[in-house]
Amino acid sequence: MADPAPFTLAVVGAGPRGVGVLERLGANAAELLGGRRLDVHLIDPFPPGPGRVWRYDQSPLLRMNSMPEDVTMFTDDSVKMAGPILPGPSLLEWAKKVRDGSLEAEVPPDVVTELTALDAFHFPTRRLQSAYLTWVYRKILGDLPEGITVVEHAARAVDVDGSLVRLSDGTELTADAVVFTVGHLDAEPDEWERELASFAGRHGLAYYPAGYTADVDYSGVEPGETVLVRGFGLAFVDLMLLLTEGRGGRFEELDGGGLRYHPSGHEPVLHVGSRRGVPYHAKIGYRLCGKPLRLPRFFDAYAIDELAGTPGALDFRADVWPRIAKELAWGYYSELFTGHPDRVRLDFAVFADAFADLAWGSPGMRDLVERAVPAEEDRLDLDALDRPMAGREFGTPEEFGKELREYIEGDLARRADQTFSADLGAFMALLSVYGQMPALVQKRRLNAASQVSDMDGWFHGFFSYYASGPPPRRLEELLALHEAGVVSFAGAEMRVTADAARGVFVASGASYPGEIAARTLIEARLPGPSVTRAADGLLRQLRDTGQLAEETVADPETGVLLPSGRIHTRVSDSRLLDGTGTPHTHRFAVGPHTSARSAAAFTRPRTNASSFRQNDAVAREILALVSPPS
């Protein structure tokens, strides 16, 4: 009898997530492939491994916001999954092995010096990360078992019709299964952005809607012109560098510490603001001092099951956030008590017993913390962390600028001083909480409006602001640019209006007196998830033909449906759901903008990362299709 034809899998997207699924296919093959052949077609116009975001072909100024010891593409024994663990080096371990000659890798000449000097607390360039991801991909290819072959297609998938997958280069594939490994979804401008773009067109202005900064052409921004920038996160950090140092300016290290910026004369003047009015917190530059943290402790599977059993729909802020806040406080105070016992009044065991019995925000909890932690600066205040400028007003722009400089300087000092290592305890707890979110979503007990606005909106923003900020050097550069007059701070609760009478954009804010008029406005942020406004032609085609749908969140009490913007998938197995809510037997989607809501950041070792678990689960589902159980 002739051997059966190979099973053909199309993987649309060959960046880190697509390669991660490929690794799990290889890892699970011995158990599940059953002797059948599997042909995997990797479809991506960008290089497999790095993909679009981490491709080598981008500015050498752009860096990761993760340290190399916190970046891995390989599973370890913390990952709770059905498939086998196949360990491998983190980015830092890889660099060390390449340096000492114990591992061979092709490293572009312009990152060799960086690789040679790399240590645990550096922030690598995206080009060095690209070299690591290229090596990871080639290692995965080399480790694939007999029976799995890979075909690369440097093209886009433009149409999926039944089993036929058409590519932008004219290639047509007949695929038995398709997995969409999507990152952030590019989106067409929303209604407000379209209005601003239309206003700009009528008045000869420049408007840049939300987008991935490294891919936007800002060459039209003129030297010396006033530019409004809305957004103070990582997209702004990239923009700031590209429009300053990227235009020929340079930073000088000062003998007493800090930086001085020497303009090239080609820079615009950036007036930046946001809802908080402050930049994301700098990444922490030290390790824990105390005993290992017990995480999760108060926001674990048991807590989520308990929440799911609560009568009525859950409100994220009222019902879920207090438990998350208690988990963050547990991480914070665990490190404070065990790492800095001279700054507390109670034995940790006594504090922990009392803490466990009290609700976050209750009078009893406040009393316990005040009795146990004498210094107010050592007490965790999540409201102040979230909105540090709330209710603050300033008489002049100079007053606000001085206050914000002091805030940034204080953040830099605190995140470089192990005296404040309790902040790292809260950081680790926040990472743990984020990993529990898919399980919470799967319970379908959240009030729809609360899930979309509070969990997907506010909480995700808080996570990014506290845990996903820039390298400290970037905030030092921000201060230098402010001192040089190239960056100005436009305040919290930034509002932008289109002033038809003057034919300009006008910005104002709660903490910033007066207003700023400009002919250029830049949205320094990634677009939110939106299947409705998807810019990708394939996603639009699948949406318009009913093969792919935007997730709608149903209120468990009223049945009211609200769109979340995400690709609708079944969280348990990542199967794609069509317009009727029916799971497709042979199509899957994984990524941050699917219903599973996995983090877009790279995986830290030993964190039981949800992305690894999802990759393993979807790989096993695919292999079960290749060789169905008898």
From TrEMBL:
UniProt cross-references to InterPro entries, sorted A to Z: FAD/NAD-bd_sf (IPR036188), HpyO/CreE_NAD-binding (IPR038732), L-asp_N-monooxygenase_NS-form (IPR052189)
UniProt source species: Amycolatopsis heterodermiae
Record SUPFAM superfamilies: FAD/NAD(P)-binding domain
A Pfam family matched in the record: NAD_binding_9
Record-annotated FAD-dependent urate hydroxylase HpyO/Asp monooxygenase CreE-like FAD/NAD(P)-binding domain positions: 10-184
Protein name: FAD/NAD(P)-binding protein
